[in-house]
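User: Second chain of the day. Same drill as before.
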Amino acid sequence: MKKIPFGSRSGLEVNPVSMGAMRFPDDVIESVDTIRHAIDNGLIYIDTCRCYGESEFKLGKALKDGYREKVILSTKSSPWNGKIQESDDGSADSILRRIEESLVRLDVDYLDFYQVWSVFNEENWKMATRKGGMVDGIRKARDMGLVKHIGMTSHQKPEDIIKYLPEADWVESILLTYNLMNQSYAPVLAKAHELGIGTIVMNPCGGGKFAENSDVLMKIAEEVNAVSVADLAIRYVNSNPNIDTMICGVAKRQDVNDTIASVEREKFTAEQTDFISESFEALSKEKFCTACNYCMPCPAGINIPNLLNLVYEDRVLGFSESAKKRYNGDAEKCTECGQCETKCTQQIKIIEELKNAHKKYSK
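Assistant: Same format as last time:
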């Protein structure tokens, strides 16, 4: 893989594929082997988190023997996503405590990046950027030599993030969702790239969804000479010039090998990218649940939009196996009261869909 600038603000370079630490193997020895295999093959930016189980400890073991010097190490936290101590209030002092703790867990002297984790709304943004808040705490850690660069991750509305970025001179990297089925953050990636912010994409394969065989999506893949649905997904992300790197969730060596193989194939042309986007847009127009949530709450406690989304992914996208795996049996709770159907803006026969879903997925 060929390195490219990781935005102009950081002055660093990354490869198109980076390492996500959420899915490391349970076995520590296997984790160390897998992590080092990834680093040896160019996955030098590492995205971990205080709340990703034992990932920081496993990385600490893997980064011995000269491996620390080969990587760009990043971790993150936020009090709204998960407090470690009751005193975690988003203040500069509390975030400095979290940084010092991660250094101990990782067994390193410094972090290349520390990120404000998962900004969901304006309240989170204000907590992070207020005087004496999280960003000030990370800046203090930077002054102490504990952190070199500052970043953020977000799931907020794209238009809100675009509004923040021009004033956020502290942001050197940003991590967002972007894949075949979710392109809503494309304008944010473009704006961040324009501002010199390093751009990172999470879930390029839809959290593993596009690793599943699908006859529906394979037809699209074949039209653009992709060898699989996963190859289609990876190359689609890699063909966006506003994306510097994508996170590969590393659970085994093959995850690394397959992702690298895809990025080393030719990028899609503008015509191919348009074809892919238009094909997925057509699929998304299939009249079904829009997740408006008017049917909620369900008196029986069923998450109706989630269940209907499984049905959609199975029926329209061809993801039958993942639908079956993700089904939690809730449809059986339906009492057929009919309240949901009176409120459904798409006039879906919800009771019938729930019955069919339970019959099909509970086998």
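The first helix runs from residue 7 to 10.

User: Great, on to the next one.
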